[in-house]
Amino acid sequence: MDDGVTLVHAWEEPPARWDAAVFLAGPTPRAPGVASWRPDAHAELRARWRGGGRLVVFDPEHREGRYDDYDGQIEWEERCLHLADEVVFWVPRDLEAMPAFTTNVEWGMWHDSGRVVFGAPPEAPRNGYLLHYAEKSAVPTAPGLPETVAAALRRIGAGAPRAGGEREVPLLLWRDAAFQRWYAGQRGAGNELLGARVVFRFGVCWGLHVRVRVAAEGRVKDNEIVIGRPDISAVVLYRPGAVLDETQVVLVREFRSAGADGAVHELPGGSGPGGPREVAVAEVAEETGLALEPGRLREHRSRQVNATLSAHRAHLFSAEVTAGELERIRGSGPHGVAEAGERTHVVVAPFGRIRREGLVDAANLGMIAEALLEAR
């Protein structure tokens, strides 16, 4: 009877599709008579898998116990580690029979990937360093193999069906709204995702190296990097002048390490819970101290901020402010969410100065120009 679990051993080709995939990382016995822990892991996975689809289990032990192609083994393991939605580290370290030296290296490479769980018997020696970084990286830990497997399956849940190049997008990115918007656009254009590799993941931001078949051009593009993050709301607060260049615009100045002088001037804005208009109101209040009624915001078109690199969009709003409001917030601050490391100062500048002095980047300049031109 098919229990929905497929075992893939060392050097075997992964199947063409699945709903979830795990890699069984940890020490492998090399001495005769030393039993492997992985058959017990297979049994736990079979007993606990309730996803309803196909769970693939990558087992770095050869079905016939062969270990005569070291380079091939490394290449297979690296490929399947990147394919896995969760890497299950079970480290029953035995300094004589299973010293787990290679496991230490793998743990160092994957402990902060966001897709590992760690387990070890309490009596297993020399695991303190690994457990320290598990705690530091918020990795689920357990003292037993059943609990370790259960922790991995809890994070997987029902999984998600993926085939071909989609298999190379782990669940933690596959479930990300920014990724799904990007991928929907690719599929809408008739493009095919042939492969992917996670470049980085930091908080709500991620980077993906993708290989795509471009339908309209009949070719494969394999050097694309996509950066994703939640969409933002940006707000142009302005006080009309006699001419466009005399229109006063509210900016916020804050530290950004990529800024030419360690700081940037930009529109009040950011991301957070709620719809784009709710986010816009909240960001204005947080970054300028100005409380706006949602109805005062005029909505403009949303656009990608840097379409050659980043998949996220900016939802643009504007609001005309009174002379009293402008004076009240001019030069005010610091504002921002201190616990998030945010500190902003309000700067009011005429559009002509913003344009001539390069006070903002190209994306902010475009948003300001669009909002002001539509308001005239």
UniProtKB/TrEMBL annotation:
Gene3D superfamilies: 3.40.50.450, Nucleoside Triphosphate Pyrophosphohydrolase (3.90.79.10). SUPFAM superfamilies: Nudix. Pfam families: Nuc_deoxyri_tr2. It comes from the Bacteria. InterPro entries: Nuc_deoxyri_tr2, NUDIX_hydrolase-like_dom_sf. This is NUDIX hydrolase. It comes from Actinomadura coerulea.
